[in-house]
Amino acid sequence: MTLAITRDISPRFNECELTHIDRTPINLDIARAQHHEYVSALASIGCQIVELPAETDLPDSVFVEDIAFILEEVAVITRPGADSRKPETDSIIRALTPHRALVQVTAPATVDGGDVLVLGKNIYVGLSTRSNSAAIEQLQNLLGIYGYKIIGAEMTDCLHLKTAVTRVDDKTLLINKNWVSVDYFSGYDLIEVDPSEPFAANCLPVNKHIIYPTSFPKTRAKLESRGYKIQSVTVDELAKAEGAVTCCSLIISQ
Asked: Rounded to whole angstroms, how far apart are CA atoms 138 and 148?
């Protein structure tokens, strides 16, 4: 069984944190409709949905992925880099407690789940405005007992590591090589985003499908040419908050 934990959009979504894009008004009705489409897409490919209620006073809380990342052995509760997001952890702890043992990142480390790319026993952590070097050491201490190696990855011009690179399958990554060096990922088959679609490197593989935005048709064609089954979703209103398809769910295989 595959669980997908999601959360409804806050009524204060327009107050979201922004780092690398300009603020433009978000239409809440459209954003909520797109989020509903995203949740429906997860359900249609076999996920059991656990939908948390909106957090009225936490604008970014729809992006549940930043608050935790899931491993086979444990779930890691992060310490988000933006102070406004730190209160989001309480409800995610409650949601994850029935499904995994929990470990938690503590000060002075900060790390957003969007900066965490798990590839087998290697866990890459983007060194960004949200995630710091103290998180590398702390995560190694927390997870080394399970055989994981934590690797810091420098990136540029984007919010999170998974804005620049995401897993397609066990051997394949989708990447914008202008935002993160391919040298970190030797041994993987790399699919480069179309140059006209720099934000196209974020995809969500679930149950032998790829959840993928409609906004990037040229890069989608590259994935389809490799035989991947694409489940398309429209998330351009969520993207105004620097959100993407990995951001809006926590996927748990049971």
From this structure: 12
- Give the single-character DSSP code of 111: B
Which of 153, 170, 59, 169 shows the shortest CA–CA distance to 114?
153
**201 three-state secondary structure:** coil
Instruction: Please pick, among 158, 160, 203, 248, the residue that the annotation labels catalytic.
Output: 160
Strands 122-127 and 116-119: antiparallel
Name the catalytic one among 47, 158, 203, 247.
Answer: 247
For residue range 124-144, what is the model confidence (pLDDT) as tens digits?
Answer: 999 999 999 999 999 999 999
Give me the pLDDT at residue 107, please.
98
pLDDT tens track for 139-189: 999 999 999 999 999 999 999 999 999 999 999 999 999 999 999 999 999
State the architecture of 2-253 in CATH terms: 5-stranded Propeller (3.75)
Has 160 been annotated as catalytic? Answer: yes
Mean pLDDT of the chain, nearest integer: 97
Domain boundaries, the chain: 2-253
Reply yes or no on whether 203 is catalytic. Answer: no
Q: Which two tokens stand for residue 95?
A: 């949601």
Contact 132, 154 (CB under 8 A): no
Tokens representing 52?
């948390």
